[in-house]
């Protein structure tokens, strides 16, 4: 989310899947779209039929590669070098869409004199503290303005201080899923783009060394293939043509994942592909409602609609919470209306102006409460209970052993799932039982397994990869004691409320919640449509709201998620609309409902030039109709409908009134797309190439800064890191591995390994290796092989295939291994879990683990059993010289402070 959010204003996909058919060129990277998103891939094939160029960049040759015009095999974890090379090509050949860049991006803004780049500080940006492992972003600011020290002025998850004890301005991405941080004042700018410290010139300098030769040495992509891709993107972008980029978890699951997406965002802004038909960036979600689970979040640091969770020491009351945002330009200035309407939705008549609308009842952040920190808290006895719903951490999460250690330290565990997954049975048949590290008799965790209803057994909405809410109707009733998630949470809340006496003041926060959902049937199933209507919201007369601009800060409206406001406009479930394609235009506005306001392409004001005219007739999408005095076109304009192109804000104007008629990115406080991020990301205003946490390759661009200096790391006995690059011992793990998914199985296997037909189609855990690696390591097709890292070793059947190709990296041959991640010891098809291999090293913006690029060894034969497995791993650790300090340096040279 922060990669897109800081770049454009919202963390969702900028376009919709059907619009890919309008593309002239599609770059698919970080995704095997044909196999992982086969339904959406039909629109890629439609584009190809119309003459579009399809490019696939991926370590493996897949079904996506097979139908692409060109597949480029790259080394896992090197994508920023490749994208940086494309950015350098666009800038050095003067191929950017100049009029778009000048008018619609922050290219002209001048950065303060104190800023120093990675090119100045050998891999670090200014403001880095090597002991804390974090940046003070003060020196990243524009000249003439100041961004809030943290997102929206709120506190940080880990309040950083310097080693001298001084508080430091920091950047945190809490709200970057729906807008970059606010800043006040008007930066100095140079529309000629010639000033040496304007963003455009800094960008050129930052990527000047990302040459085709460097791309070849880092990524393993030939200069000829690189040039072909660069030429295709340039030729198919501009006034009359557009190119799209699609990515998935192949980009997000890295210690620099947010910066991968930032690099793509920079490229698309330079080429003028954002907000335009056939352009944009499509963030492919691998599950039906992953987008929904971030919109109405399962994330610890967000409230619905990407409102940041309050912090314990800074957000003392509602006024302090909204203060910085209300003084900024753009739609985040209305945060008070969004928040008050949310509080009214939750506490109804009990939320009044006199009690700050119950703002003090919201939880407060006191630090990092993410998944991996929670597991450490479990191991250390700080977290006694755990709900696991729709997840299978015992095999499906990085360092699965650490996850099981956390589960074994709990007092109680609730697992709701379709089958008896590994997380529910770890206490009796987990790998640690076999090795002797755990004894069932010693595990005190009381496990409650509650059978869950499947999606066919419940009503509800999905929010899919293009921000589209689609309603699904119950097909069959759940049997026996299976229940929907909605049933579970509603009745759990009801029972908790029944047990509270109300004598304690803190009980009121639960007892006064609006918990009056209608139920039906023998099991008292709550109405899913009533929940959706509550999320949409009502005015003071209980009439459904139709759009989020109707929300008010005086308590007269209530809305469960402001970006979803309008989904039940006029009392109609808009997400249930299914008007056939032949009865509407290609944008299909009556198929489901997309947030916000049923817009299908975000920032679509950028599809017209500053005067409001389409850049070309061929790529017309929305435009200014002077006769009618409004924006019109094929989609709902992502702009104030009656704001003229020549509108200029008055001095001191804030909120939407502070956005000019030529500024399409209305969620940003300057209305522009950000090539440079002065605040909102914790690891740099520009993406820079760093090697993965564990890599057999040294950082060619920054030899003294191997890894992302701001990455999150937790070195523990069960989570030791490996040496990397030129560090002694790295040759013990000479190969790269990457994980991938199959069409036949779903994520950690809980929905597929128990199904006979899917288990028959993909019956065994396997390891993909090239013929050359098979010869080098004595591996036979169909036989067993063992992959080893510093955490564990797993086995799988060998698949020798030319889909895995050796790469020439810096003058030496490098081999890569592909490992599917669906298996575990339970179900009809069983096997070792890929996540046994993976250490916990995280992207600092979003706390996501690095599963897509690691270093390992591979050897023929099956892995050892019982205690012999631990001895094998210990032997590898000893050979590599691994201890608690290995791989933990933030700055490789701690004397360098980054300015």
UniProtKB/TrEMBL annotation:
Protein name: Formate dehydrogenase major subunit
InterPro entries per UniProt: Asp_de-COase-like_dom_sf, Formate_DH_Act, MoPterin_dinucl-bd_dom, Mopterin_OxRdtase
Domain Molybdopterin dinucleotide-binding: residue ranges: 736-852
CDD domains attached to this UniProt entry: MopB_CT_Formate-Dh-Na-like
Domain called Molybdopterin oxidoreductase: residue spans: 18-424
Family that this chain belongs to: Belongs to the prokaryotic molybdopterin-containing oxidoreductase family.
Lineage, top ranks: Bacteria, Bacillati, Actinomycetota, Actinomycetes, Pseudonocardiales
Cofactor needs: [4Fe-4S] cluster
Keyword line: 4Fe-4S, Iron, Iron-sulfur, Metal-binding, Oxidoreductase
GO BP term (any one): anaerobic respiration
A Pfam family it matches: Molydop_binding
Organism expressing this protein natively: Saccharopolyspora dendranthemae
GO molecular function, one term: electron transfer activity
Annotated localization: Cell envelope
GO CC, any one term: cell envelope
Record flagged with keyword Zinc-finger: no
Region (Disordered): 147-190, 704-730, 880-899
């Amino acid at each position: 989310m922060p990669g897109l959010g800081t770049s454009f204003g919202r963390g969702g996909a900028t376009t919709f899947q059907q619009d890919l058919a309008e593309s002239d060129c599609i770059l698919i990277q970080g995704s095997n779209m044909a196999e992982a998103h086969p339904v959406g891939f039909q629109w890629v094939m439609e584009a190809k039929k119309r003459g579009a160029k399809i490019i696939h960049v991926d370590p493996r040759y897949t079904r996506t590669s097979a139908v692409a015009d060109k597949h480029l095999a790259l080394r896992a974890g090197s994508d920023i070098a490749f994208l940086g090379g494309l950015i350098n090509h666009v800038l050095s050949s003067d191929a950017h869409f100049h009029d778009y860049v000048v008018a619609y991006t922050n290219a002209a803004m001048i950065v303060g004199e104190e800023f120093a780049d990675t090119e100045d500080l050998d891999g670090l940006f200014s403001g880095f503290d090597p002991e804390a492992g974090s940046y003070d972003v003060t020196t990243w600011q524009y000249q003439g303005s100041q961004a809030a020290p943290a997102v929206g002025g709120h506190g940080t998850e880990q309040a950083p201080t310097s080693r001298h004890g001084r508080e430091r301005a920091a950047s945190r991405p809490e709200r970057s899923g729906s807008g970059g941080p606010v800043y006040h004042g008007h930066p100095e700018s140079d529309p000629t783009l010639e000033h040496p410290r304007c963003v455009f010139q800094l960008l050129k300098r930052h990527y000047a060394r990302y040459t085709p030769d460097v791309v070849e040495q880092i990524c393993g992509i030939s200069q000829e293939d690189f040039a072909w891709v660069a030429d295709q993107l340039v030729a198919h972008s501009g006034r009359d043509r557009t190119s799209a980029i699609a990515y998935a978890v192949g980009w997000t699951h890295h210690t620099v994942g947010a910066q991968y997406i930032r690099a793509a965002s920079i490229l698309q802004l330079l080429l003028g592909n954002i907000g335009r038909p056939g352009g944009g960036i499509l963030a492919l979600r691998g599950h039906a409602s992953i987008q929904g689970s971030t919109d109405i979040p399962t994330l610890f640091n967000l409230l619905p609609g990407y409102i940041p969770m309050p912090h314990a020491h800074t957000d003392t009351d509602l006024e302090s919470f909204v203060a910085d945002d209300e003084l900024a330009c753009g739609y985040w200035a209305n945060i008070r209306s969004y928040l008050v309407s949310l509080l009214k939705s939750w506490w109804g008549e009990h939320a009044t102006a006199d009690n700050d609308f119950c703002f003090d009842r919201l939880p407060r952040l006191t630090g990092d409460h993410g998944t991996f920190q929670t597991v450490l808290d479990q191991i250390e006895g700080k977290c006694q209970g755990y709900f696991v719903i729709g997840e299978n951490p015992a095999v499906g999460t990085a360092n699965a052993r650490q996850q099981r250690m956390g589960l074994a330290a709990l007092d109680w565990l609730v697992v709701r799932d379709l089958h008896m997954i590994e997380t529910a049975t770890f206490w009796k048949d987990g790998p640690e039982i076999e090795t002797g590290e755990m004894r069932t008799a010693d595990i005190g965790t009381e496990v409650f397994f509650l059978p869950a209803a499947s999606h066919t057994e419940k009503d509800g909405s999905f929010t899919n990869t293009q921000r589209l809410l689609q309603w699904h109707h119950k097909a069959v009733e759940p049997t026996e004691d299976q229940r929907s998630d909605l049933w579970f949470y509603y009745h759990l809340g009801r029972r908790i409320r029944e047990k509270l006496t109300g004598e304690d003041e803190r009980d009121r926060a639960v007892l006064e919640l609006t918990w009056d959902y209608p139920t039906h049937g023998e099991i008292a199933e709550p109405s899913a449509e009533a929940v959706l209507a509550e999320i949409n919201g009502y005015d003071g007369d209980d009439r459904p709201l139709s759009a989020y601009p109707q929300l008010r800060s005086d308590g007269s409206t209530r809305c469960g998620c402001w970006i979803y406001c309008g989904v039940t406009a006029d009392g109609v479930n808009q997400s249930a609309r299914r008007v056939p394609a032949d009865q509407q235009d290609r944008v299909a506005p009556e198929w489901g409902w997309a947030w916000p306001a049923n817009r299908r392409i975000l920032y679509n004001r950028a599809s017209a030039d500053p005067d409001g005219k389409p850049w070309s007739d061929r790529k017309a999408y929305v435009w200014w109709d002077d006769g009618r005095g409004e924006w019109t076109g094929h989609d709902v304009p992502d702009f104030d409908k009656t704001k003229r192109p020549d509108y200029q804000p008055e001095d001191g104007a804030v909120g939407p009134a502070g956005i000019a008629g030529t500024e399409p990115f209305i969620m940003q406080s300057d209305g522009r797309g950000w090539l440079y991020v002065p605040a909102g990301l914790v690891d740099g205003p520009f993406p820079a190439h760093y090697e993965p946490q564990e890599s057999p390759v040294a950082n060619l661009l920054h030899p003294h800064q191997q890894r992302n200096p701001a990455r999150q790391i937790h070195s523990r006995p069960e989570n030791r890191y490996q040496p990397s690059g030129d560090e002694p011992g790295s040759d013990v793990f000479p190969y790269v591995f990457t994980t991938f998914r199959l069409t036949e199985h779903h994520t950690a296997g809980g929905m597929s390994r128990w199904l006979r037909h899917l288990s028959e189609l993909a019956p065994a855990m396997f390891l993909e290796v090239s013929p050359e690696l098979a010869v080098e390591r004595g591996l036979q097709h169909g036989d067993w092989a063992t992959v080893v890292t510093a955490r564990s070793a797993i086995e799988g059947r060998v698949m020798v295939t030319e889909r895995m190709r050796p790469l020439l990296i810096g003058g030496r041959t490098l081999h890569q291994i592909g490992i599917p991640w669906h298996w575990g010891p339970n179900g009809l098809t069983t096997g070792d879990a890929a996540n046994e291999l993976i250490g916990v090293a995280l992207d600092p913006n979003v706390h996501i683990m690095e599963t897509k690029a690691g270093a390992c060894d591979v050897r023929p034969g099956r892995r050892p059993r019982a205690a012999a497995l631990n001895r094998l791993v210990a032997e590898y650790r000893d050979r590599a010289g691994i201890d608690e300090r290995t791989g933990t340096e933030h700055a490789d040279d701690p004397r360098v402070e980054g300015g």
